[in-house]
Amino acid sequence: MLYKKNDLTCVKMIDFGLSKDFSKTNTMITMIGSPFYIAPEVIAQKYNKNIDMWSLGVVLYIMVSGKVPFPGKNEQEIIKNVMKGEYHFNYESFKKVSPDCKDLIQKCLVMDFKKRITATEALQHKWILTKAKLDVSK
Asked: What phi, psi does 19 have (nearest 5°)?
């Protein structure tokens, strides 16, 4: 949601009812979450904080295209498509999306969480640095 109407510079993320503090544990096993945003390792019921980068990739994909990367007619079909990990940029809306933005999405939506981009790496990604003009060296 936008913090202020028509102000695209401040987006508020909401609905963190299923948030978890990972400081005391490295692995979780409960399968919870919204199917459209759920990482494959959550479905396998063995996951850690790397699921957040998958969800970020899904959110970014939706924000720039208005589509979900892993659609389905029902929850089972959505989960099946998430587990396949196949998505595309063939929608008309992606014609206006920069290669750098697509690259960040691709690095978030990596099936193997060990190879998925980390939050620290994402903050150093070219698309983030050029669009957000962040100083992440602090």
From this structure: -65, 150
Instruction: Give the integer Cα–Cα distance in Å for 32 and 132.
Output: 31
pLDDT for position 36: 83
Please name which of 65, 55, 50 lies closest in space to residue 102, comparing C-alpha atoms.
65
Report all structural domains of the chain as residue ranges with CATH numbers, in order of start. Answer: 40-132 (1.10.510.10)
Alpha-helix runs per DSSP H in the chain: 40-43, 51-65, 75-84, 99-108, 119-123, 126-132
| Structure-derived torsion over alpha carbons of residues 89, 95, 100, 104, reported in degrees to the nearest 10 | -30
Confidence of residue 44 (pLDDT cuts 50, 70, 90): confident
What are the pLDDT digits (tens) for 18-27?
Answer: 445 555 555 4
The residues, ordered by sequence, that sit 6+ positions from 14 with a Cβ below 8 Å of its Cβ are 1
